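Tutorial, part two.
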Amino acid sequence: MKTELNGWDLLTWRLAFEDKGIVPLVGAQLSLQGHVDRDEIIHSIKVMLSNVDILNYSLSQEEFPTVRKIEDVDVNQCVQVLHNQTNPADQALCTAIAQFSMAEYRPDLPLWRVYVVYKTDETLLFTFLHHAIADGRTALEMILRLCDAPIPNTKKRQLGEKSTFQELVGDVFRQPLNVLSQLTSTLGSFSSLISLQPQHTLTKFSERSHRNCAIQFSISRHAMKNRAGDLGVSIHDLSVALSLQIIQDLEKTQSSEQIRINVPVLNTDLDTLNEVLIARIWLERLGFDNTAQQYRERFKAWTKEPALSFAPAALNALATVQQLDATSFASHSDVTISSLPAMSDVLRLKNHTVMGIWPLVPTMGSAFNFTSIGYGDQHYFSCTYDSALGIDDNELRSLIRNLVTRHFSVDCQFETTL
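Running the prediction step on this input gives:
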């Protein structure tokens, strides 16, 4: 990650500026025990910057950005304390989106931000990275490094002679249309990855306001493991089924109409700039149990798509095009669903125990974004949605509570507001 482009490629930056409000970010909320002094946080970040080269880069504010390394990052301007907030997650999301928007973006600062909220006996730490340099795995690595925890081993990618950050992005910006034209015939084989006719199941989404709301809750991992075993599926399959059941109940419809979901998939066999592809999967609405099992079968079929076994050269080019598709067509999605690897080890920042982790990803164009991660004995969920949907926050919380009780026989725990 020190010299390679590790997230969705920099075409996301261009698209974010063109989409009039969609800012692709990945982030998380860490709930830390006790009061963590801001100076302690800044010290940990400075240590991390010395080990993670990509976090020292910035982009020019142009249609075709250029990259440059910031030799002396002003960490103080990247770490901000938020005061007197009723809903810290909402405020952190809105602040991050605003600061990376066309109006407020500062090319003299790197593509990440950290926000701090102090509660009586707890510190909330919000980490955000721009998708131009980070995917969910990179965001997770940032958390692990902040907590001085071991980094999971990943397959080293071989990128030939183009090994520096500047060289990697050069061709993408110099000849983006050539990449597209060369793969016109190839893309037809990737029907499971591309949607030319996205369908909206949430009609009010056309009036989106680009303001994200967040609801965070957790479920016992023990209860989820038991339920997954009963159905012969994985915890991720249950996360998909629960997310879709929430959408179905919100729409108050029992129709069998299909809903399109985007599932970011890590494929370490790809020798590309980005190991993450977006699985486009359509599911009928057949109830919670059937949805989990149906998703498992559809996803297995997707992984056997013949196009996924193309030659490395074609896959390398596809990575560029796929990420363009992921940031343009995903802006017309119904639901995006992601899961990060579970962590069983207890994390600590400067001897302050991390009591909970909630992934926090803005909708980026999907009507809903569900992201989850396992930590300790809990599975943490964040649901972000655009306020233009007109959803009643209390109604959504009640709906989630009832669904979790019905399908997992346990109570879910909501992250409290201030």
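Residues 235-251 form the longest helix (17 residues). In part three we will examine how such features are distributed along the chain.
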